[in-house]
Write a structure and sequence with these properties.
The chain contains 6 helices and 30 strands. It has 500 residues and is an alpha+beta fold. The structure holds heme C (HEC).
C-alpha cells in the first residue's frame, strides 16, 4: 500500500506525458516485493528468516585521478542513478533527501551522512560500501560499482565541496555608488537596439549602443538601509533578470522577492511587483507586450512561475508546482497562449496561458536547464543546460530534435535572434556564440571574456550583441562583424574593474 501511495503523490506532481515516476516505479515495486517475499516465510513459519547469501562489502579500488572530484559532474550522476528514486522528491526514505547538495548534507533520521574530509566516518560511504547497516541501496537494487564508491569517497575526503553553479543565495548588498566589482547577472538589449541595460550587483545602468556611452542609472527612490541612509540602487539584492517589453517602453528587473517595472525612456520607477517567495531569476514579455512571465523560487522547493498583466501588474496566473526546484527560464509562445519554462529539476515544460494548465514536458537534459526560448514560428523550443549542451525540441511531436554545442561549461543563457532560427548563447566557459537550431551549426563567436558568463543579449536584427558575467564587465559587440565596441563598466569605475 505504501508503495502505491508514494507513486501516486509523485505522479500528481509530474506531468502526464513523460512521467518521471515511471522509471522509478519499478525499483520501488521490486523492493517492496522483495521485502514481502522475504517476510513471508517468517510470517508463515513464525520464525525469523535470515538471508543466506551474506552481502559482501563493495571492493575498494584506488582511483588514478589528478583533478578534483566535483559534486555536479561526478557525484550527483551516481546519486541520480542509484539513490534518488528512494531519496528525493516525494519519497525520502529515512528522511534522507538526496535531491540537492544541501538536503543531502543535512541528512536523515540518523543525522548527517557525510563528514567532509572523512569518508571513512561517513554513514553514506559505510552504507553504500556495505560495511554498516542499512546496506544501500537495498539488495533488490543495483549496488554501487567499486569505481563509483571510490569517487564518492574521494569527493568526501577532498572536503565534500558543493556544486560550483549554485546560483548564490539572496545576497543583500547595501553599498551605494560607485562600487567594487559586482558580477553581471542580467542584461537586456532594447528592441530598437539603441540601448542596453545591465545589472551590476544591485544596480542597473543603461548605455547607448553606438559607442557604449553611459545614459542613466535606475534608482528605487524608496530604498533604505538599516541605518536609514538612502541607497542609490535599483534593488536591495542582486539584479538577477532584465527584460525589455517588445515596444521598448518598459524595462522589467527581477531581484530577491520583487520585480520592478521601469519607464525605459526616463528610468522612472513605474511599479513594483511583490509576493515572490524568493529570487526572480528570469523574466519574459509576451510578443504583444501584454503579459510578463516571471520565474524563480527557492532552491529545492517549488519553482515559482507567475504571469502578470504587464500594464496593471495584476497576477494572471500562478503556476503552482510547475517545477520541483528553481525555475531558471520562461518564454511565451509567439501567440502568447503557451508558456515554456525550465528549471533545476532538469525539465522543460509547457503550460497553457492563461489557465496555467500543464501541457507537455520535455526530458533529456542531465542537469539543470538554465534557459529556454521559443522560435518565432512556434514549432521549436531551444533549451540551454548545465550539462553544457543546447537541445532543440519539436513542440507538436513532443520530441527532442537535436543536441549540440561545444561549450565546455554550463550554457547559462540563450536568446533567439529576432524571428530567425539563430540563437545566441553564453556559458561558464566564457564563450559567446551564435548557433543555428535547424542544424546545430555554430556561427560567429564573440571574444575577450575572461570569466564565467551569466548574461547575454542580442537585438532582433542581430546587430547589437552584449555579454556579461563574473568579471563585472559587459562587453558590447557589433553583431555583424564580431568586433568589440566597448567593455562597459559601471559609472565611477574608470577602467573595467579587475577581478577581486
Ligand atoms: C529502493 C529504495 C532505496 C534506494 C534505491 C536507496 N535507498 Fe537508502 N534507504 C532506503 C530505505 C527504505 C532506508 C531506511 C532504512 C532504515 O532506516 O533502516 C534508507 C536509508 C538510507 C540511509 C540512512 C539514512 C538515515 O539517516 O537513517 C542512507 C545513508 C542511505 N539510505 C543511503 C543510500 C544511498 C547512498 C543510496 C544509493 C547508493 C540509497 N540509499 C539508495 C531505500 C533506498
Amino acid at each position: 500500500m505504501r508503495f502505491f501511495l508514494m507513486t501516486q503523490t509523485r505522479s500528481a506532481s509530474e506531468g502526464p506525458l513523460f512521467p518521471r515516476w515511471w522509471s522509478s516505479l519499478f525499483p520501488r515495486l521490486r523492493f517492496g516485493l522483495v521485502c514481502l517475499l522475504a517476510a513471508l516465510p517468517g510470517l508463515l513459519l513464525g520464525q525469523e528468516t535470515k538471508s543466506k547469501s551474506a552481502i559482501q562489502p563493495i571492493a575498494i579500488v584506488k582511483l588514478d585521478r589528478k583533478e578534483p572530484v566535483t559534486y555536479e559532474k561526478d557525484v550527483e550522476p551516481i546519486l541520480v542513478n542509484k539513490c534518488q528514486t528512494c531519496h528525493s522528491g516525494s519519497v525520502t526514505e529515512a528522511k534522507l533527501d538526496m535531491g540537492t547538495y544541501e538536503s543531502l548534507m543535512k541528512g536523515g533520521k540518523r543525522g548527517k551522512p557525510i563528514v567532509p574530509g572523512h569518508a571513512a566516518d561517513s554513514l553514506l560511504v559505510k552504507s553504500a560500501g556495505r560495511t554498516q547497516k542499512p546496506f544501500m541501496p537495498p539488495k533488490s537494487e543495483e549496488p554501487l560499482t567499486p569505481q563509483e564508491l571510490a569517487l564518492i569517497k574521494l569527493w568526501i575526503d577532498q572536503g565534500a565541496r558543493p556544486p560550483a553553479m549554485q546560483r548564490e543565495k539572496a545576497k543583500v548588498i547595501l553599498t551605494g555608488l560607485p562600487l567594487s566589482v559586482h558580477p553581471v547577472r542580467a542584461l537586456a538589449v532594447s528592441p530598437d537596439k539603441s540601448a542596453i541595460a545591465a545589472g551590476w550587483g544591485n544596480q542597473i545602468h543603461v548605455y547607448e549602443t553606438a559607442k557604449g556611452a553611459y545614459l542613466r542609472s535606475l534608482i528605487d527612490p524608496d530604498l533604505k538601509v538599516q541605518d536609514s541612509k538612502p541607497v542609490k540602487a535599483a534593488h536591495i539584492a542582486m539584479v538577477d533578470a532584465l527584460a525589455y517589453s517588445p515596444n521598448g517602453k518598459v524595462l522589467a528587473s527581477g531581484s530577491f522577492q520583487e520585480v520592478i517595472l521601469w519607464d525605459a525612456p526616463t528610468g522612472r520607477l513605474r511599479k513594483k511587483l511583490t509576493g515572490f517567495a524568493d529570487k526572480v531569476v528570469t523574466l519574459a514579455f509576451s510578443a504583444d507586450g501584454k503579459m510578463l512571465a516571471t520565474g524563480g523560487g527557492a532552491p529545492t522547493q517549488d519553482g515559482e512561475i507567475k504571469v502578470f498583466d504587464a500594464a496593471g501588474g495584476n497576477l494572471i496566473v500562478d503556476i503552482k508546482n510547475g517545477h520541483s526546484d528553481t525555475g531558471f527560464g520562461v518564454c511565451f509562445s509567439p501567440d502568447g497562449q503557451k508558456l515554456g519554462t525550465c528549471g533545476a529539476d532538469k525539465f522543460v515544460k509547457v503550460f497553457e496561458i492563461p489557465s496555467g494548465k500543464f501541457l507537455k514536458s520535455f526530458e533529456g537534459h542531465t542537469h539543470h536547464v538554465l534557459d529556454v526560448g521559443w522560435r518565432a514560428d512556434g514549432k521549436l523550443l531551444a533549451s540551454a543546460g548545465a550539462d553544457n549542451v543546447i537541445k532543440v525540441w519539436d513542440y507538436e511531436k513532443g520530441e527532442q530534435v537535436r543536441t549540440f554545442g561545444n561549450h565546455t561549461k554550463q550554457v547559462t543563457r540563450l536568446v533567439f535572434k529576432g524571428k530567425t532560427s539563430e540563437i545566441l548563447t553564453c556559458s561558464g566557459d566564457s564563450v559567446v556564440r551564435f548557433w543555428n537550431v535547424d542544424n546545430g551549426g555554430g556561427g560567429m563567436a564573440f571574444g575577450g571574456n575572461k570569466d564565467f558568463l551569466y548574461a547575454v543579449g542580442v537585438s532582433p536584427d542581430g546587430q547589437v550583441v552584449a555579454a556579461g558575467g563574473e568579471e563585472g564587465v559587459v562587453r558590447l559587440y557589433n553583431g555583424g562583424n564580431g568586433q568589440l565596441i566597448k567593455a562597459l563598466a559601471p559609472p565611477g569605475a574608470e577602467a573595467p574593474p579587475k577581478k577581486k
